[in-house]
Amino acid sequence: MSGKVLIVDDSEMIRNFHSYIVKSLGLEIITAVDGADAMEKIYGSDDELLICITDINMPHMDGYTLIERLREDEAYEDIPIIIISTEDEMKDKQRGFEAGANLYLVKPTEPDELLLNIRMLLGK
Amino acid sequence: MIFTFQTDDLEILQGIVEESSEHLNGIEEGILRLENDFEPELLDSIFRAMHSVKGVASFVDFVPIKDTAHSLESFLTDLKKGLYPCSAEVTDLLLRGVDTLNLLLQQLAVYLQELELQPGQESFEMTVEEHSFPELIKQVDDLRKVLTSGGEPAIPVSEIAEHCPEEATNQQAAVEKLMKLELSPLFDQMLLDFMEETSEHLEDIEAKCVLMEKSSDPEVLNAIMRGFHSIKGGAGVISSMHEEGVQDALVQTIKNLTHGCESLLQTFRNQAIKPGTEVIDLILTVVDKVVFLTANLQNEEAIDPDVEYLLERIKKMAPEANESGIENPAQGGSSALPQQMAAFMNISGQAMESIKGLIDTIEPDTPINKKRIKQYSRALKSIESTARYLEYEELVQEVAQTLTYLSGFVPGVDVVSEDLTNKLNKSFEQMKHLLELKLNHVKSMLENVPLEYGEKRLGEILLEENKLTPEQLQKALDQQKKLGDILLLDGSVKAQDVDLALAKQAAAREKTREVTSDGKTAAEAAGQSIRVSQEKLDRLMNMIGELIISKNQIHHLAQTIANEAVIPGMAREAKAVAGELARISDELQDAIMSARMVPLKVLFQRYPRTIRDTSRKAGKQVELIIEGEDIELDKTVIEAINDPLVHMLRNAVDHGLESPDERRRLGKPATGTVRLRAYYQGTYAVIEISDDGKGLNPDEIKFKAVKKGLIRSSQIEEMSNDEALQLIFSPGFSTRDEVSELSGRGVGMDVVKTNTEKIGGLINLDSKVGEGTTFSLKIPLSMSIIRGLMVESRGHHFVIPLDSIEETVKITRTGIRSYKQRMVADVRGEILPLYELGEVLNLENEGIDRQTADKVPVVVINSDGYKYGLIIDAFQKEQEFVVKALAEEMATLKIYNGASILGDGSVVLILNCTQLL
């Protein structure tokens, strides 16, 4: 598999953890510490994103806003977006879907589960 | 065979060499223990270590190590399965395998060292002898074949790949689907990150709490909640990793406490109430507790978190605290489903929820927001791609139809359409139906699974369900990879089938549920340490040597100032500075010396193997007892004493111990004991090698010595038994007529003795006929810096190491007698032979007229138990001397240990008193 993955989380540990897992698929990683940082990083380069994995609860710009912004852009209209959050309530999930997420996972995610979910959302 | 490595990988390769060597040491030790004491847990740990060796080699695709380790791993798997016992034959081969791996690592290390010396190359090539490792792999395969009687020989992994390269790449993805991701390498760093991040969050929370008391800015409350939230999330990830050694209870407690605080604050935020002092107090108490728990995460000892009362207080503080998030139910409640199925159900289930949520908002005759249509098609796409991944064709078709229909609506326009609403509803129902069908199908298969599947292997299940032929199974088994992976690789079965069969196996096991003890090995005691290259330590050591020379110079200077002080008070000040400098350099010296110290364990752990090999070849039964492997010695010393120790251990088994029959005849236990013991004695470490064998016979030794022409027969009479024993250290002496294969390798005890003395050590021997022999090596703890006494003789200065000095005395000239043309004197009731240092060293007599003084200074030397007095002209000072090795021609002079540079820059020679006479 080739392509870039955007990983957004305000915890360095989680960023590293998710990066490590995703790297095993042979994908390149872009990390950002919050929504605002993610927007800056994406629009600072011509990189095409394959998939985005984001936290919700972050300073400056939260995950919902980030997803909504991404979906407004034609380039990111259809990429799979996975939310990985500690919240586990239906209303949070619904809000995620409304914002434009494809999948809502609850922390902590098992590495194999995350890998499988990414593969499935990419259909390969 | 030539392998090419990239220079970029240099560090990784070095890491591999170091890590693998450590593993191999452990493996060797384990295998030896296994032979006597077959513990499944031990086997597991050997297996794991071997697996790691293979793993790191695969990382850079170093085939020789990868394949060898793989072959040995399969061998170990057989043992784990109990296919055959761990016989001496098996152990032999396993050990030979470890040797092969060690050899390969050593070769690699040599290449790496060379590479480090010539930077700038982009890649380097390594040649591995054609037959080195394939031969071993073949031996392993052959033995396994013999032991399991029949069955095809296993094929090394690399060969398979060569045989069918196309298939390999084609099916690679399928295999990856089932591979488990190895997390342990990441874990330590994650734990440290977690601890660090948690501390940062806690500090921030603390500061914000204080702020919250005064300010009513809602953002402060939000920030505190975010802090707790992050800690909670991190703790969740850490505890989900199930690593050994982590105090899981502590992490859980941290998670519960932070979750409690977050929920508590949430109620205040929801009701727009500012938390009062009481709440803030409680939060701060929790913060303190979490600080404490976090700090203890790396401790070995378990501590009692004891937080029930805190959790109670948190609950009481907010009676309406939101409970919903505390324990999230397993997603979709489908824990028994195969992993892939569970993921599929989760993704499609969420997509359906998303669709349901938006269908509910659609009202007749109002336009459907374009965003809603997009949300719908997005959800459909999630389902489509997962269905495609799992090859659920009918579902893919169904979704594709709806998607095509939806694309007919131009994006960007809000739509009013009855047709669309109906279609959306219908499609939703249809999809729901298909998904339920799929789920129920899998569920029913799992429910009706025969109970005996729990005891069956994956292959048996697949056979029974006709998904696989026996031939395919056998071929796969021979390759000894994970069965599922291999079957996928050669295309025998579909990924879904393997996944499902595995789940069935698990489901049946769950149903029968046998309580088995989980073989959790004790967490490895991880001392905090970093690797430092020997070269850096040596450089540091050298610099400290220089520093001590400077220190002595300053001291010298201070002395001169004191003698010729022109400015009052300056002498005292100079002395004070010199004293302070001396203290610091002493401490620095101690610290760096201890950094160079290595426990004897690194040597001793090799010896069970040495003893085992020797005893097997010599046909003797030996038990090796090791004591004091924690004793630490300078690394250079450790390296220097290995050969002597190995030689003496071999001697003990080969020459010392009797054969089992003879021992029985003598009334001794058939199994002989060789004891290797180390302990501290003053500034020395003593290593004893003793056996309970036949002992050395002095008469026999004397006789042999005469025969070899080492002594004259006339000397036999006057030679004491102890002196006779010392003869075995003479060059060319061997107590056996024929040199045996084992201990007689051209090195005798004379080499052992010179090697020991080279590092400033002493060797002693004690033996009783019929009871055994004990050799003891006395080794200085450090070699580079010694305390010594400077003396003067005939105008020259020399240093005598304090270790050799028994005492210093002044005796009256009249007290010196002459006996057989030798000088002797009575020192404290003991008659000592006296030698004049200047005479011994053949110095020209240019000194003062010694005849005038009526008292003569004498240094009493104790060399190896032999005492004598050295007459000198004057005692000078006692201080520390940095030993510098002598240059080549000088180094042949055994009477000097080395040289040292004095405070005034002059050079002085250090005497080696054992060689002086």
Give structural notes:
The complex is a heterodimer of chains A (124) and B (917). Chain A starts with a strand and ends with a helix. By secondary structure, chain A is an alpha/beta fold. The longest helix of chain A is centred in the N-terminal third of the chain and has 12 residues. In chain A, 43% of the residues lie in helices and 20% in strands. Chain A has 5 helices and 5 strands, in the order βαβαβαβαβα. By secondary structure, chain B is an alpha+beta fold. In chain B, the strands form 5 sheets. Chain B has a 6-stranded mixed beta sheet with strand order 12-16-17-15-14-13. In chain B, strand 13 and strand 14 form a beta hairpin. In chain B, helix 11 packs antiparallel against helix 12 and helix 13 runs antiparallel to helix 16. Classes of the chains: A alpha/beta (124), B alpha+beta (917). At the A-B interface, helix 1, helix 4, strand 5 and helix 5 of A face helix 8, helix 9, helix 13 and helix 14 of B.
Question: Any descriptors?
Answer:
heterodimer, A: 124 residues, alpha/beta, Rossmann fold, 5-stranded parallel sheet, 5 strands, globular, B: 917 residues, alpha+beta, 6-stranded mixed sheet, 55% helix, 14% strand
Q: What can be said about this structure in brief?
A:
The complex is a heterodimer of chains A (124) and B (917). Chain A is α/β, with parallel strands linked by helices.
Main sheet strand line-up of chain A? 2-1-3-4-5
CATH architecture of chain A: 3-Layer(aba) Sandwich
Radius of gyration of chain A equals: 13 Å
Order of helices and strands of chain A: EHEHEHEHEH
Number of helices of chain B: 32
The number of distinct structural domains of chain A comes to 1
Any low-confidence stretches of chain B, pLDDT <50, length ≥5? Answer: 150-179, 319-335, 514-528, 735-746
| Biggest interchain interface, per-side counts | A-B, 48 and 51 residues
Overall pLDDT of chain B, averaged? 77
CATH top-level class of chain A: Alpha Beta
Which structural class do the helices and strands of chain A define? alpha/beta
What is the beta-strand fraction of chain A? 15-25%
**Sheet/helix structural class of chain B:** alpha+beta
| Straight-line distance between termini of chain B | 57 Å
What's the gyration radius of chain B in Å? 39 Å
Q: Care to count the β-strands of chain B?
A: 20
Looking at the chains present, what oligomeric state does this protein adopt?
Answer: heterodimer
Largest sheet, strands/sense/barrel of chain B: 6 strands, mixed
